[in-house]
Amino acid sequence: MATLAQPSSEAFVRHDPAQVETVGEGIRREMLGYGPELMIVKVLFDKGAVGEVHAHRHSQSSYVESGRFLVEIDGEKQELGAGDCFYVAPHKDHGAVCLEAGVLIDTFSPLREDFLGEGS
Predict the structure, then answer these.
(1) What are the residue boundaries of the structural domains of the chain, listed by start?
(2) Which pLDDT tens digit goes with each residue over 58-75?
(3) CA-to-CA distance for 120 and 87, rounded, in angstroms?
(4) Which of 34, 39, 40, 44 has the fewest Cβ atoms nearer than 10 Å?
């Protein structure tokens, strides 16, 4: 697992392949930028990868950069593709199945402390 950079006063984030971490079978995650109230995360999915249904206290809005996903939110399912978005209110069950390899850009408010690893 990659060691993630800690928050700093730096305003710019450059892509670093060493910072991409595997978080599940066929799923990789890269932190793009974050502060106490907002986090942006790039999530790369292989075809068939499953983001299991889960819930958390954070508001989440996600943009489908590429690929196709079957997204479930609070029991409702829709197929989404490049350019589509979805919003998940806090504590709502949600998950996604990747139908065609792709990328989600997830935003969270406040930041996901659990994504920062130990010592955060």
Answers:
(1) 20-55+64-114
(2) 999 999 999 999 999 999
(3) 27
(4) 40
Q: Are 70 and 96 in contact (CB under 8 A)?
A: yes
Please name which of 7, 72, 64 lies closest in space to residue 38, comparing C-alpha atoms.
7
**pTM as predicted:** 0.87
Classified as helix, coil or strand, 90 is coil
For the beta carbon of residue 7, count every other beta carbon within 10 angstroms. 14
Classified as helix, coil or strand, 115 is helix
Contact 68, 62 (CB under 8 A): no
User: With contact defined as beta carbons under 8 Å apart, do 120 and 6 qualify?
Assistant: yes
Residue with tokens 């889960």: 54
* 20-55+64-114 under CATH 2.60.120.10, yes or no: yes
One-character DSSP codes across 49-72: -EEEEE--SSEEEEEEEEEEEEEE
Q: Which residues contact 14 (CB under 8 A, 6 or more apart)?
A: none
